[in-house]
């Protein structure tokens, strides 16, 4: 039975939203759940979609996503299909040259050629493999959900209506890296690496339905990618509030500040936090920083640690379990998000969910998540080490303020930013995309099939006016 025929009536197993369970293909060209927001998004959204009663098949390339509850979601409810690339950036041999017998087809040759010439091929090559895979399975899925691949392969017919999530335009990352690049050779290298953004801009303009995670990202998609705003819908994502929760039995470590960041990504603003830490330690000598992320052995962050004599006051941790991460955040007196820009900021939501007080910049959509300055967080301008230092010092020196902000922060996350709410809003847009697809395919003059009305689509949510002004 085709997806169109299945949609004709509720059938068995109708869900609380009035619709029937859906068969969903969720695409992710990179699925690492511990590094980068896209892998986290796939991991948590797929789990919550399955909990709502839908069948979710995640189709991804290396690093393959880790999915929660594969054994407990019910038969066929949640599954992973591996669609392998050549894995050219794997550790410990990134930018490797594959052996002759690893090549399978022309897509593999294109992937290697693009890498050899300094470009990043995976969004394009994954999209081509995904199109081939999906067309071979036409009729199996009600909807295809692309997680920011935005590759040419997803234009045209992929066997089911397409919905795409754009977390934020990668052109923002490109510009920040160009601004931080020193010398023409480095700038040329950055431009070549981000060459795929031209493709993503062209593809995004032709997509029928785009989801994004914040009002700020919505406006960036309009401004940077030229997408018609009427086709962009905001569905906030969130924290796993069962996992990221307060636990008074975990002792706080005096002076501990925790952040989640990659040292070699300029938009994360870690270099400004390192400079701020040096200032903070003049008032609070025990202040120290734990960075959840990979340490760069050279570059601006490493140079700043050496310049300010902070070798013993900054620790990098990676590869820790979820439970270890949560306890690390709980143990901190302060959490910090120093980013110059974020499309949403999961680290902010997760820290707030544990009840850990937050100092965050006003970069991108962070105010939308963290809330008003002085009410649910302390807010500072992005790229301002002095303001970061002042906020951190204020919180480290005021236990009462830490308690108040921690409690208010968790309440904000529980009310606005949970994965269950994200899944419900996403399904509403799946049903809307399916209805629009049926309308386009229906012969002129044919009466529509009787169908259960789709759940109302989630509203486009703009940032709170108070947050926009103050945080």
UniProtKB/TrEMBL annotation:
A molecular function annotated in GO for this UniProt entry is:
glycosyltransferase activity
UniProt xrefs under InterPro entries = Glyco_trans_1, Glyco_trans_4-like_N
Stretches assigned to the Glycosyltransferase subfamily 4-like N-terminal domain: 36-242
Region Disordered: which residues?
Answer: 446-471
Gene Ontology annotations of biological process type: lipopolysaccharide biosynthetic process
**Which positions fall inside the Glycosyl transferase family domain?**
256-412
Look up keyword Transferase and say if it applies: yes
Superkingdom of this protein's organism: Bacteria
Gene3D superfamilies xrefs: Glycogen Phosphorylase B
Which Pfam families is this protein grouped with? Answer: Glyco_transf_4, Glycos_transf_1
Q: Which UniProt keywords apply?
A: Glycosyltransferase, Transferase
Regions of biased composition (Low complexity) lie at 450-460
The cross-references to PANTHER family, in alphabetical order and at most eight, read: GLYCOSYLTRANSFERASE WBBK-RELATED
Name of protein: Glycosyltransferase family 4 protein
- Tell me what organism the protein belongs to: Streptomyces phyllanthi
Taxonomic lineage = Bacteria, Bacillati, Actinomycetota, Actinomycetes, Kitasatosporales
